[in-house]
Amino acid sequence: MPDGRASHAKSPVFYEWYDRKPDMKHQTHYCPGCGHGVAHKLVAEAVTDLGIQDQTIFVSSVGCSVFGYYYFDLGNVQAAHGRGPAVATGLRRANPDSIVIAYQGDGDLAAIGMAEIIHAANRGEKIAVIFINNATYGMTGGQMAPTTPVGQVATTAPWGRRASTDGHPIHVAELLATLQAPVYIERVALNDNRNVMRARKAVRKALEIQTRQAGFALVEILSACPTTWKLTPPDAQAFIAEALVPVFPLRVFKDAETTAPGDDAVPVRPVAEALDIAAEPGWARKGRAGSPRTLGIKVAGFGGQGVLLLGQILAEAGLREGMEVSWLPSYGPEMRSGSAHCHVCLAHDCIGSPLVSHPDILIAMNNTSLRKFAASVPAAGTILYNGHTPPADFPACEAGIVCVPASEIADRIGAAKAANVVMLGALLAETGCLPEDTVTAVLDRAVKSPELVAMNRRALEAGRCVIASAPPR
Amino acid sequence: MLHLCKGNVAVVKAAVLAGCRAFYGYPITPASEITEAAALYLPQVGGTFLQAESEIAAINMVYGAAAAGQRVMTASSGPGISLMQEGISYCAGAELPCVIVDVARGGPGLGNLAPEQGDYFAMVKGGGHGNYRNFVLAPASAQEMADLTILAFTLADRYRNPAVVLADAFVGQMMEPVRLDPRETAAPEKSWAVRGTADTRRNLVNSFYLDPDQLEARVRRLDAKYRSAEMVEARSETYQAAGAEILLIGYGIVARVLRSAVEQLRTLGVRAGLFRPITLWPYPSAALRQAARGCHLVMVVELSTGQMVEDVRLTLNGTLPVEFYGRVGGNVPTTEEIVDQVVRCLAAATV
Ligand SMILES: Cc1ncc(C[n+]2csc(CCOP(=O)(O)OP(=O)(O)O)c2C)c(N)n1
Ligand code: SF4
Question: Domain span at residue A405?
Answer without folding.
Answer: 289-469
